[in-house]
Amino acid sequence: MNWQDKAHLRIPGPTPIPLRIQQAMAQPMIGHRGQATSQLLQECATSLRALFGTMSTPLILTGSGTSALEAAVINTVQPGEEAIVVVTGAFGDRFAKIVKRYGITLHRLDIPWGESCSPEQLTSFVQAHPRAKAVFLTYCETSTAVLNPINELARVVREHSDALVVVDGVSCLGAVPCLMDEWHVDIMVTGSQKALMLPPGLAMVAVSDRAWAVIEQQTQPPFYLDLLAYKKSMEQASTPYTPAVSLLYGLKEALLMLEEEGWENVFARHQRLKRMTRTGIRALGLPLFTNDQDASPTVTAIDGRQVAWETEALRKHMSQMKVTIAGGQQHLKGQIARIGHMGFCDELDILTVLSVLEMALVKLGVSIELGSSVKAAQEVMLDV
């Protein structure tokens, strides 16, 4: 028997794909310039408005989330201009690398990894760099399990600057509220393989009227990542280049599933999964990498720097029991262990992960009481 089919993927992306979405993507191929694909694009774009919290029509790119990050940079800021990037982890650092690669003057606000950026920190930095054309932020910093207060940070930028507010929402949209128009965010991007429960390969971008006015002034627009080309094509219910048709079928089904659950229920479920995970880990006496205020509802990090055992050994033991969790990135490699709990994930999945975590700790020789984390999480689940 192929027991690999029973494996539990609990990394912060790619995430497990529901059977219903798999079946939707298995439909026969259709012509990418035909009426069926045009209708599919229109249905997806309409449903995406609720995901982003916008009245504008989101764009759908065939590419990873990084393609959307790059598109957000090169369509809004030109070489020689200035930009601010808030770095709270590896993906803020990726934004900074893209900015630097294209000859844009980078002003980098580094926040200690494991902490969110506060409005006060951003206020002084924005005031110190009044010529910045855009401020790039990360909503959920996957590498550190931190959720940044995007609403408050966007307000700071608007109060103290004319810069565009550009946000990476790849690892949390579909799990947390996003009110792009109300928060005055100019560009919000996300990807398919996180809370949207799809394979990698789609990137979605929502753009404000204010941002379009800037994009239209670009003197040397990119080719494949030209957002104006996607906008013009979307107005005709098409794409400028070949779309990932099967993934569009999956996206339509994923958004339908989220709508059926109800957005408020989706957000509440992710908060509950976060509380169960963090409470269970604390019951084992393990340190968490982020505080409760900054913690993301989509991923939780165990701080391996404060324990006697190796996080990579923990991951190996858990993998042998068919549960896969993630390690750290960059200088946190081998220092933390991350548990993803977004998308196609429910309370029973968390109980499974915690149970296997306990057994892996026992194999490492750590003295714990078996069942203690599961019991603590069950109490959260039962709200007792």
From TrEMBL:
PROSITE patterns: AA_TRANSFER_CLASS_5. InterPro entries: Aminotrans_V_dom, Aminotrans_V_PyrdxlP_BS, PyrdxlP-dep_Trfase, PyrdxlP-dep_Trfase_major, PyrdxlP-dep_Trfase_small, SP_NH2Trfase/AEP_transaminase. One of its GO terms (molecular function) is transaminase activity. Gene3D superfamilies: Aspartate Aminotransferase, domain 1, Type I PLP-dependent aspartate aminotransferase-like (Major domain). It comes from the Bacteria. Its cofactor is pyridoxal 5'-phosphate. Residues 29-330 form the Aminotransferase class V domain. PANTHER family: ALANINE--GLYOXYLATE AMINOTRANSFERASE, AMINOTRANSFERASE CLASS V. Belongs to the class-V pyridoxal-phosphate-dependent aminotransferase family. This is Pyridoxal-phosphate-dependent aminotransferase family protein. It comes from Laceyella putida.
